[in-house]
Amino acid sequence: MAVYTYLSKDQEGKRKEGEIRADSLDTAIQKLSASGQMVISLKEVDDTFDFLGPFLDEIQLSLEKMKNSVPLANIVFFTRQLATMFAAGLTLERAIHSLGAEEKHKKFKKILNTVSENIRKGLNLSESLARHPGVFNTLFVAMIKAGEVSGNLNEILEELAAYMENLDDTRRKVKSAMNYPMFMVIFLGCMLAVMFLWIIPQFSKMYAQLGAGLPTATRKMMQMSEWLGNNTGFLSFTFIVVFISIWLVSKTQRGGFAVDAIRLKLPVFGSLLEQSILNKFCKTFGILIGSGVPVLETTALLEKVVDNKVYEKAIKDASDYIRDGYNISTALRRTEVFPSILLQLASTGEETGELSALLDRAADYYQKQVNALVERMTTLIEPILILMVGAVLAVLVVLTYLPVFHLGAALQSGL
Length: 415
What we know:
By secondary structure, this protein is mostly helical. It is built from 18 helices and three strands.
């Protein structure tokens, strides 16, 4: 007996949703109709868990991006130049060929030449770009396709160029905020490795020759240094295995959802990541709606743009609600993921017919939030990290040299 999820209305017009068990779709409709309900939607719950297919697709796409990694700045420049040259009257084939000839990045140059050659053979621009998913994402291709179908490719290219520039600016600010903390953590790790694997063992040999009794803290530190030195290979292998395992788990649906949920809950960094995602969501949503892309097609593209499984699931759930008859703001509210200010702007946009403009305004708001968080992190976290690194290294140095402060007693005990 199959399980079906349903959305229905009763005789008073009230919505009701739930699950029902039945032998077939017709039987489920008959049961609901017999209880006086008018069926709006009825879908069978798929109990099969397709793990391998999506997992392999994620791995393949990741490897494709690594193989054909092109800096976002290069793609932004290409989009802006293509929009300008196409507006000036050049054909797409000639414009892309010229841009490919001037491109300095070898991989991107090869891709542009291939795209130009495919256009010369008769393929349209969107089809040619779709053959390089590691460089041109689904949204990029879909926007180009929308421009080709509607006949306003010139305007779409301009909007896409502006969108890519905004995305590149946001990404650079987020990276600049995270680069310094990452550098300090890596620097601290390298210094600890040098201390424990080289400097402290030298002092251990010297103190052992003197035969001096060491303070408890110093002795524990030297025992840890000895253990790390004896297990360096094992620890390195374990670190690599754990890193690869986490990466593979993050490519699964459930594992990726858990990893992304943890990332969003990180202090300060989680808020910065969330504001960046919301900026991308609003900007993309506004452009697609403004370009005349249907709402359900827009949400399908948004799922692939946000780069976070938590928001991907929320957008998918919102798509189901929209398909069942809810408006956009209500569908987003029912996911319980999107913030109230975005929901209010979306609701106002639907009422006034200016959803695209208000989503663009929301994107500007979240862009300002990203800028404010980056500035706050720069002014607060950097000094804290410097103090933390200095404190850790100072403690290790003091513990290492502590027996030297009692060198006379150590020499006496050695005689």
